[in-house]
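Late entry, written up from scratch paper. The run itself happened at the end of the previous shift, but nothing got recorded in the book at the time, so transcribing now.
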Amino acid sequence: MLERELIQSRGFRNVVTGGDIAGFQLLLRMPNYRGVWASLIDGVAVRVGDRQWDAEQPLWTLQGRTFTIAELRASTGVRWQLDEPATIFVPHPGGLAPASTTWPWTSPSTPRTSPRSSSPPSSTPSERSR
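Output as recorded:
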């Protein structure tokens, strides 16, 4: 089951390829209830601490297939469905330090919650819309 936040708390980890840490990955939830054709995706820029990767660098995995953003833009027949998280792989040899792979984000359009907590934050609807 997907979480309410766009950036999912599960799935954020370093990725090992051939015995070496090749980078890290995170999962994103589709924000549109109808899904979207992959060719319409603009990419995602990633920032962790003082490190930044532009929208052209991460690789996207949708429907079990991995794409660069250029390949997604040229794709036909590939959709990012509502119930499918996109796996975003960010190439970063050596990966992130263990302290970086904890849940540091909230999505700007959603209330702040802790991934370890099963209860929603105690706030009123007007506080959540700010």
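The first strand starts at residue 13 and ends at 17.
(Scratch paper discarded after transcription.)
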